[in-house]
Every structure is written in C-alpha cells, then in structure tokens.
Design a protein that fits this description.
Length: about 300
C-alpha cells in the first residue's frame, strides 16, 4: 500500500471514530463529568497535555468537565527535598503537621497551575481551586484499618460537607474548575489532606454529575489480579461491595470512591488507564468503552 492509500485509510478510521462518537456527544451535552487525574498521566508531559486537550474537547462539545487532581509523586519529591518523612498506610499518605503546607502548595501552586496553563493554551477556561476556596469542602480527621488494626494517619481527612455553589457557577460560565483536595477541618483546627479519589466522589455527588471518571495507572479492576485476562468491564454496586475487602490496598480508595459516588446518585463511575493518551474520550464516546464501570444495579 502506498502512502496515499495509507493516509486515506487513516482518514476513514478517524471519520468512523467521529461518527461513532456523535450519539454519545449528543447524549452527554449539558452533563457534568467529574474527572480525577492521577497516576502516570500527571508526571508524563505528553500524557498531561493530552489530558488537558481532552478537557477542552469536552467543553467544546458541550460537556461540563470538573477536574480533581492528586499529586502523589510530586508531593513525595517535595517532602523528600525538605527532609520530611512520608509513608503510606492502607493506601493513604500519613500526613504530619509540617507536611500539610507543602502538600497544599504543591497541589495548588504547582500541579494546579500547570494544568491551568496547559488547558488555557486553547482558551481562557481553567480556574484553579482547592477545598478552602468558597467553602468548597469541610473534612473530619480519619484513620485507616490495616490488617485489622486501627492506624493514625495524622492530618488526613474525609469530606463531610460540600458547598458546590462556586463550582456550579464556574461550569455554567463555561469554565473548567481544576480542584485539589486539601480541606479545612470542620472543627476549625487547620487543614487536612483528603484523598483525591474520595474528594472527587463527594464533589460528583454534590454537583449531580452524570459520570465520575478516575484516571489511574491500571487498566481497570481485575477479578483475579494479576491475571490480566480477568478485567471487569462492568460491576454493580452490590457486587463491588462484596469484592472490596479482598482488593489490594492501593485499589481500595479508588473503588470505594466509585462505590460512594454511585450510592450517592451518580449514574456511573469508572476507573480507566491514564497511561493511555485520550483514554477518557475512549471511555466516554465509544460504544465499547474502556476500563471498569460501576453502576447501581
């Protein structure tokens, strides 16, 4: 096949993809998607730009994206450079008093600002916030159970209250909120580090999102890990509840977030592979989808 024929074949494939996407674009116009960005997509510049481009694409076709981001690798590097120890228990970062301001600044001033700049290459769309802004989040301190033992996580919290008014106002203006999950303690005693997956789920419920999507470093949820042939494409909330205790500790916060979102009224929650460029568009706008989808029943 010569280069002209190859070019035409590629063009037909692209045209077919656009045609397949059309009914899904029409279906989701006007809907809010809450998308949690994490994993390798956050440290690979090409993947990060592809993600930013996807957010602009969503906004352009009438979907209202809200981004919630983590920053594990960047936070770990920043803490290490300052000589602040860091460890994980039950899938959560144990957070000391001295670590909190570092985490806040890395999330908002470095990661959030970078995402904003990448999105705004196309147009002035992105607005950076965290849980302190506009009373977005309030949180209570939480611990974790590790091998049946209660563990103190330090300044780690879970969202107990969401005021989505500022987020709603921004998306109605056509803006793309870029949110990090540091949140004030509900007792007024300071800031808490909130798991970004859990924060995304709480926000998805509060804004009545059509979909919650978590981008991570795995293809989805496996019924029998590490057997990669056991990928689960769809699972009900009841089935996930039964499976949850047997999951690897790193997967528990992610799948718990999906479960909380669906139980809170979000029609669908999905975990997808953020290592694949444009995986979000494949999940949202193709018939076969990608990753693992959690539904109510």
């Amino acid at each position: 096949m010569d280069t002209t024929e190859t070019s035409h074949a590629d063009a037909f494939i692209k045209a077919g993809t656009l045609t397949e996407a059309l009914p899904w674009i029409r279906r989701f116009q006007g809907s809010v998607f809450v998308i949690k960005l994490g994993g390798n997509a956050m440290v690979d510049g090409d993947l990060l730009q592809a993600f930013a481009d996807d957010m602009v694409f969503l906004a352009t076709v009438g979907v209202k994206p809200v981004v919630v981001h983590g920053g594990g690798p960047q936070i770990s590097r920043a803490l290490e450079s300052r000589g602040i120890s860091s460890e994980f228990q039950g899938g959560y970062r144990v957070t000391s008093t001295e670590a909190i301001p570092v985490i806040r600044d890395v999330l908002k001033e470095e990661i959030g600002a970078d995402l904003k700049a990448r999105i705004n290459r196309h147009s002035d769309l992105a607005v950076v916030l965290n849980g302190e802004d506009g009373g977005l989040f309030l949180a209570d301190r939480r611990g974790a159970m590790v091998d049946g033992v209660s563990v103190d996580l330090g300044h780690v919290g879970e969202v107990v209250q969401v005021d989505p008014s500022e987020i709603v106002a921004l998306v109605e203006q056509g803006k793309i909120p870029v949110v990090s999950s540091i949140a004030p303690n509900s007792d007024g005693s300071g800031l808490l580090n909130v798991n970004a997956d859990a924060a995304a789920a709480a926000l998805a419920v509060a804004v009545r999102a059509e979909k919650l999507v978590l981008l991570t470093d795995v293809a989805g949820l496996y019924a029998n890990w590490p057997n990669t042939d056991s990928l689960i494409s769809s699972i009900t909330a009841e089935e996930l509840t039964q499976l949850l205790p047997s999951l690897e500790s790193g997967m528990i916060p992610k799948m718990s977030a999906c479960l909380d979102a669906v139980r809170g009224g979000v029609p669908k929650a999905a975990i997808i592979d953020g290592r694949l460029a444009h995986s979000l568009l494949l999940e949202a706008f193709t018939t076969s989808g990608i990753g693992t989808e959690v539904v109510a029943s």
